[in-house]
Structure formats: structure tokens, C-alpha cells
């Protein structure tokens, strides 16, 4: 058996189910009294302390009568429950005996049940959970994250530019949105830098456009870097650095997951989603070091390094989006290794010059258990991008502050009048943890969806 969406691990409300008790150390004495003497002695004799991720199956006349999950001393998060689908026995179904954290539990359960099973079945069927009423949004959120994870996990021979834009078209069709594809001569003329990045691949570059919402609603533009595989171009990556480059379209996957959540929630906004789908490959048509590329904005860019291609893709997307004068512009990209050196794999780097916007996004990340960390767009480093033959270089003259340099480059393509946030993400779990299996990860999607809801909850116009 394999799972295809979170609903596969959610049991009907009337399904026979065993009770799952979720408790921290402070509540353990009360639970021991509630369970009865036999089960209390069983837990005490087994040394159960309700530590985080500690769990026990309670025996009963027919085998198992209940389970107890320890939450530890800290406040619960979705990850408190994320290990249960594969920890509890296969074929079992459970209901929450402790409803206080129902939404967190359902979200964590669904995220923890995910495995990428396109080419091999999962290790075993996950246990199922009866979702309490009022937790439907958690299942919807998990479904969007599953689809983003699927896209990131897909190998590059399966997911190229054509397949990535097809995913955008499928999302548009599923939600009554308007989808279109820009390719060929139109792409070369309107998105020249992006086109140059993809010119070295036999799989032609494309831009996918999704538009949704009422015309009088505030416009939110989302731009995603969709480099389906990044060899580094003629500035070839070493093999170790190339190994995970199927995930270099992670920014595109994230904006698609975010768009799905916004449309499912019927937030009172109008969406413009742009995905730049390219492959940075090597051939006689590949762009070269020290080439000078024209951009949609009319800014000429000297190519200091062909492996800094994501910012060239985003430059044209951001220009296109900014021409629409959105109320909010967000881009997501697996842009720099420097962001990972600074913050590690779990904290996406947030860049914005708008302090109030930064706080809304950071607060949303804390509330959604989907954290980010703000890094500065330090103008003092802007001159590091100077070029003596073009308007700007795509890399710095100094080997420092790489994530900031990426943000400074992108800032040149966004008007200061537009509220803009740039996210430099990893989009990957290096190892499996509860709720976060190894592989592609939908980082920052839940935070951004909550932030958009906060920013536009009082916006005029009907919900679509």
C-alpha cells in the first residue's frame, strides 16, 4: 500500500478507533488516575515519564486497548505528533482522547505520514487517525505540503521544465484559475535573462503564469525559481554539490503550495503566480562566464558565474510581477549556499526592507511552527556587484555575505514602492525526523499563508 494524499491516513468519523492519550509530565499523575490501576502500574513499571516522543501501547483483552504519547515540558507542535503514523502499529486506527491540540495533532500526523512512493512503496501502511471536527484546514494544509514535497522529490529526468509548468496548469485547472505558458520567441523577448539560463538545455525554458481571484481584490504576486536541475552551467559544480540539484526548483514548488493554500482558504486576494521553469545545462548554446545578458527591466548583467543562475531567472519574473504593481510581492528560491552556512537547513532566510512586513511574516512563522530568520539587505555591500562592462554583475567581487548579495541583486528589479519579501530556502530535510521525512520540504509555506491571511483579512471584496 502507498499513500497518495493525507486523506488516505484520515479515518471516517464513525470508524472504530482506539484512544490516544497525549500528555506532558505535569498531567501524567492525573492520567494515571484516569486510566485505572492496571494501566497505571504498567506505565510506571515501564518507566514512562511523558517525555517528548515517548510512547507506549497499553494492553487490553483483545491485544491493544489504547496508546499514550508523551509531549514533554515544552508546548506541543505538529512535530510532537509527527512520528505516530509509523510508530503505531500498521492497520490500527486512533482517535484523540485529548482534544486540546487537535489541529496540531492532525497536521503533524498527516505531515508525518508522507513518503515519496512514486518508484517504490512505503515501508508499511501508516496508522490512521480520526480527525476531530474543525481540523479540516489542517488536512488541506498538509495536502498542499505533500504536493510541494512530491515536486521537489521528483528526479530531474521525470520533472523538467515542461512537467513543472504542467503542474502549474493542473493547479490552475483544479481551482478555477487562469493558467498560461510563455515559451519560444515570446519568452526570449520578454524574459531574456531567464531564457539565456535555459538555452543550454534541450528541454526548453518556460514561464508558467497562474492568475486567480476577483479583479477588485488586492494583488499578491508570487515568484518561484524553478531550476529543474542545476549543473552550475559552464562554471560546473563538483559532483558532491550537484547531487541534490533536482531540488533547485524548490522555490517554485513552495509558491505552488502557497498558492494552493491561499485558494483553498478563499483569502480575499488576487493571485499572480509566476514560475520560471528552466534547466541550467551545458551545451554549445549555454550562456558563458563574462557574457552580458539583457534583462526584462533593461538592466544589463555581466555573468560573473553561471552557477548564480537563479537570480537571473528571478530578475525577469520580479520585473514582470512588479509591472502589475502588486500590493505584496514574494519570491522563493533555493538561491545560495551562504544562507545555509548562516542559518542551517531549517531556517529560511527572510529578506525585506519593510520592517512591518518582516514582523508579520516572522510572527506568522512562530504561530505556524514554520520559523524563518531575517537577514539584512545591507546596502553597504551593493558596490560589490559593480561591473566595468555592464550595469551589474550577477556575483560579488568578494567571497563573503553571499545570501545578502543575492538579495541586493534582486532588489534592483523591484520598485521601492512595492512591499517585497525574498526567501532563500533549503527546501529539503537531510534526515528523517518526526513529521519531516528525509527529502523535499515545503518550508515557509504555512508561515507565508498565515501572513497573507493576516495582511489581507480586512481587504475589501468578496471571497472567491
Automatic annotation (TrEMBL):
CDD domains: Peptidase_M17. Keywords: Aminopeptidase, Hydrolase, Manganese, Protease. It comes from the Bacteria. It holds the Pfam family Peptidase_M17_N_1. The keyword rRNA processing does not apply. GO terms for biological process: proteolysis. Gene3D superfamilies: Leucine Aminopeptidase, subunit E, domain 1, Zn peptidases. GO terms for molecular function: manganese ion binding; metalloaminopeptidase activity. GO terms for cellular component: cytoplasm. Residues 305-312 form the Cytosol aminopeptidase domain. Belongs to the peptidase M17 family. PANTHER family: LEUCINE AMINOPEPTIDASE-RELATED, PEPTIDASE B. This is Leucyl aminopeptidase family protein.
Amino acid at each position: 500500500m502507498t499513500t497518495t494524499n493525507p486523506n488516505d491516513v484520515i479515518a471516517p468519523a464513525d470508524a472504530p478507533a482506539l484512544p490516544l492519550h497525549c500528555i506532558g509530565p505535569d498531567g501524567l499523575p492525573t492520567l494515571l488516575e484516569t486510566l485505572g490501576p492496571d494501566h497505571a502500574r504498567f506505565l510506571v513499571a515501564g518507566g514512562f515519564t511523558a517525555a517528548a516522543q515517548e510512547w507506549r501501547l497499553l494492553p487490553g483483552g483483545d491485544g491493544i486497548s489504547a496508546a499514550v504519547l508523551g509531549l514533554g515540558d515544552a508546548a506541543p507542535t505538529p512535530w510532537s505528533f509527527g512520528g505516530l503514523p509509523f510508530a503505531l502499529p500498521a492497520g490500527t486506527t486512533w482517535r484523540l482522547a485529548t482534544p486540546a491540540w487537535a489541529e496540531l495533532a492532525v497536521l503533524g500526523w498527516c505531515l508525518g505520514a508522507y513518503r515519496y512512493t512514486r518508484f517504490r512503496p512505503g515501508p508499511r501502511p501508516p496508522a490512521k487517525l480520526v480527525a476531530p471536527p474543525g481540523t479540516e484546514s489542517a488536512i488541506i494544509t498538509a495536502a498542499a505540503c505533500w504536493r510541494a514535497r512530491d515536486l521537489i522529490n521528483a528526479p530531474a529526468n521525470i520533472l523538467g521544465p515542461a512537467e513543472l509548468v504542467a503542474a502549474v496548469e493542473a493547479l490552475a485547472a483544479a481551482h478555477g484559475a487562469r493558467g498560461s505558458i510563455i515559451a519560444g520567441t515570446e519568452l526570449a523577448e520578454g524574459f531574456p535573462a531567464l531564457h539565456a539560463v535555459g538555452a543550454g538545455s534541450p528541454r526548453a525554458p518556460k514561464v508558467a503564469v497562474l492568475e486567480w481571484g476577483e479583479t477588485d481584490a488586492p494583488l499578491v504576486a508570487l515568484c518561484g525559481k524553478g531550476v529543474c536541475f542545476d549543473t552550475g552551467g559552464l562554471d560546473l559544480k563538483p559532483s558532491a554539490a550537484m547531487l541534490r540539484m533536482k531540488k533547485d526548483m524548490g522555490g517554485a514548488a513552495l509558491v505552488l503550495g502557497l498558492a494552493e493554500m491561499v485558494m483553498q482558504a478563499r483569502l480575499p486576494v488576487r493571485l499572480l503566480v509566476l514560475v520560471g521553469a528552466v534547466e541550467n545545462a551545458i551545451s554549445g548554446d549555454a550562456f558563458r562566464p563574462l557574457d552580458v545578458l539583457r534583462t526584462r527591466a533593461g538592466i544589463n548583467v555581466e555573468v560573473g558565474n553561471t552557477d548564480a543562475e537563479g537570480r537571473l531567472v528571478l530578475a525577469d519574473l520580479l520585473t514582470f510581477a512588479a509591472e502589475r504593481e502588486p500590493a505584496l510581492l514574494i519570491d522563493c528560491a533555493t538561491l545560495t549556499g551562504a544562507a545555509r552556512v548562516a542559518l542551517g537547513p531549517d531556517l529560511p532566510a527572510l529578506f525585506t526592507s519593510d520592517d512591518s512586513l518582516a514582523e508579520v511574516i516572522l510572527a506568522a512563522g512562530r504561530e505556524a511552527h514554520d520559523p524563518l530568520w531575517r537577514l539584512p539587505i545591507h546596502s553597504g555591500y551593493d558596490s560589490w556587484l559593480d561591473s566595468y562592462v555592464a550595469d551589474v554583475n550577477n556575483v560579488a567581487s568578494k567571497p563573503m555575505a553571499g545570501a545578502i548579495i543575492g538579495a541586493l541583486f534582486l532588489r534592483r528589479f523591484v520598485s521601492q514602492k512595492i512591499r517585497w519579501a525574498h526567501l532563500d530556502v533549503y527546501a529539503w530535510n537531510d534526515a528523517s525526523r518526526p513529521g519531516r521525512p528525509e527529502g523535499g520540504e515545503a518550508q515557509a509555506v504555512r508561515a507565508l499563508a498565515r501572513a497573507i491571511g493576516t495582511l489581507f483579512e480586512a481587504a475589501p471584496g468578496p471571497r472567491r
